[in-house]
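Researcher: Please predict.
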Amino acid sequence: MNINREAKRFIYNIIMLMMICLSIIAVFKIDVFAFDWSEEPYVGLAKPGSKVIFVKEWDDDGDLSKRPKEIKFTADLVLAAEIGNPTGTTTRKEENVPITLKADNNWTYECPRMYKDMYCVAYWKNSIKELEVDGYRYAGETVTYQELYGDDFVIVKLKNTKQEVKVTSTQLGINGVKILNGRHFENGDKFKFEIKNSVNAPEGQPLPDKNICEINPTSGNKANITFGDFTFTKPGEYIYIISEYLPQQGSTEIVPNLAYDTTAYRLTIDVKSNEQTKKLGVNSVKIEKSLHQENGPWTQLYKGPLNPNKQYCDFTNIYSEPEQTISLMGTKVLKNKKLADYGNKQFKFIIEAVGKKTTNNKYEKDSVQPMPRGSVDGIYIFKNLITGDIVLPNITFTKDHAGNEYRYILRELQPTKDGTLNGEALEGAYKINSVTGEKTKALVSADGNVKWVYKGVIFDNHVHIIDVKVDLIPSINNKEEVKVSISHDEQDSETGLMKNFVFTNEYKASTILDIQGTKTLEGREFKKGDNFIFNVTPIDNAPKPVNASGNEVTQIKINPVSGNSITIDFGTLKFDISNMDGKKEKIFKYRMTESNGKETGMVYDTKERIVKIKVIDDGFGNMTAKMISNPNDLTWNNKYNTIYENVEDNKTNQKQDFTDKKVKTGDETFPLVWVLVMGISCFGLISILAISNKKKRKL
């Protein structure tokens, strides 16, 4: 009986120990698969089979109208691959992995099981980049880890919250009054006013839902001007220009004998997100005025919060009879560069009086030929607006000019001391053949291939001819009225209307940079038959290097036969303005590697190098390129060992783990637990057998 009691007590103890062991297993399992990720920069396990899933959540009350069809961004992931050796799983961090979430896929994206021959197994927290969505505010990420049916899931939920602020033109203070001096409005009068984006406005700046105001007043001398509502979906400083539309000569919209108002108003709206509520709002409004369109100078009229105490954008036209004022329009185009970079130092143009037409169809100088106010000896010089608009100054014709036909020429001022096509060159200016690109000393002719180049800009050499015919005709009120008919080389052949003059300049700048590296060998000298291969991969559309023949270089082979060091010629990098994306300074990157050869005993330097080249365009036709990476990055050091020597050092040149802190896998924990369980189980079984044998002996 004592033995039975002792045996029962022992068996009970063994059962309790087994339960404790099972509890330990459970604790270890929870510790591995429900790891506290709050202390780690990543979430997930480094084992094939784990899944990383991205999910987009919209906080917009189900309003689908503003949602895009897809969103593209990048994230940093942890990759793992089974390499089939006792070391287990190799892991590394992969940065800027491209990801696309689509509405058609219910805004869910599961990383492929295999990405670059490796499994996506974990997500690097807070690594999302470029997730801006117009009309929404990025509200951050929520990352959870789950284990389901033996699989591991990392769920990354990305939340966007709808945001917008709407303001009226009245709240901004930009409505106004049209005033006509000299007569009252009549039937047929039509005036237009426009809000457009300033040249300094951010890209994609929204316009109001009514950006053109057209009025047709029939009486009185004042009429109201109103615009629409503005809707903003993200913080920023938004800049607009408000001006009267100047109808082109020949248009049916022009009012005879009327001098249009060239005043411009600049509206700046500062939109900010409240730090506490995260809601958008208009922080301040600024209204400025210029008498010369967008050229300035600007006079501040108001700066403060919404709802100023008055409306500021008034325009005044002046009617005079019997006379007619013409104001022609043109456009300045500058390729590969922004006109805004020149500020108020824009390109200059000259309008010159050729003379009055004679009976033999020739033109002779006429001292009373109408010219813009401020002209000297029949010449007037002016600049284009910073927007690229060319507004020719007003020229007024009266009844004294009736019955005559006048000729004018319009051209761009050239980079010569007197501005003429073949004057003495300004310092640094030179001429080229625009077809071949070669410098020349030939004369410049109108519309010819020889053109001036100054500070990187190729100048337009076109000369426009403008003919103006003046007549005196009876008006509907039995009064005489001056009628001006204009023709020039930019006339539309179908409608007969005059088109805008266009002057096109082109900015050019370029530079080259030779890239060389060094290959060294330790352990022996180079010998005949040695062969080393290097790879050059441009990153983010950087230009590819070219060899002396002009062919693109992506792989370089060298065959040194002596010595321990040799130069590697990676070719020449050629940069021009087309590579700069409108920037004055840009960094280009290249991935350079040595291929792992097959020679026994040779330890190849296969470490990846990222070489950075900094290119600067000074804006005056001068471009420079300089390598800003460590020059030692372009040195590849190989070691040679005999075939009997340990070549394990070759492993050190392979890609290293992404961090010194290993991803938690639990692979080293479970074997220890099972050894413990098996040991206790064996101990319990041996003890039971021992008690049983002891009982038998006593019996």
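Model: The chain is about 10% helix and 40% strand.
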